[in-house]
Amino acid sequence: MKQILTVGVAILVAGLSFSAAAYDGTKCKEPGNCWEPKPGYPDKVAGSKYDPKHDSNELNKQAQSIKEMEARNAKRSAMLSKTGKFVYDVDSE
By C-alpha distance, which of 62, 81, 58, 60 is closest to 70? Predict the structure, then answer.
């Protein structure tokens, strides 16, 4: 039994050391910052085929919805301070 346990531990240690030895390493700029682009990836993305070319209207949708939400919340808090009752749908009142 002791021999089987010893062999099992030896196999486990060998497997872990092999996986660590299989890592070929990268050129890290600093510890933890080891990202490297694939070969052929441009240094500057803007104007290349990797440029996502986002539509400004799509990017502004969230900012617009936040402004509308803040306006609704302002109406709700004004109604609450005026009447003392919280009304969720202020536009219907």
Answer: 62
H or E element in which residue 27 lies: none
- Confidence bin at 93 (pLDDT 50/70/90): low
What does DSSP assign to residue 28?
A: -
Non-local (6+) Cβ contacts of 86 within 8 A are 76, 79, 80
The two three-digit tokens of residue 93, written as one number: 């009142």
Rounded alpha-carbon distances, angstroms, from residue 33 to 17, 36, 47, 51, 73: 23, 9, 26, 23, 42
pLDDT in tens, 63-75: 999 999 999 999 9
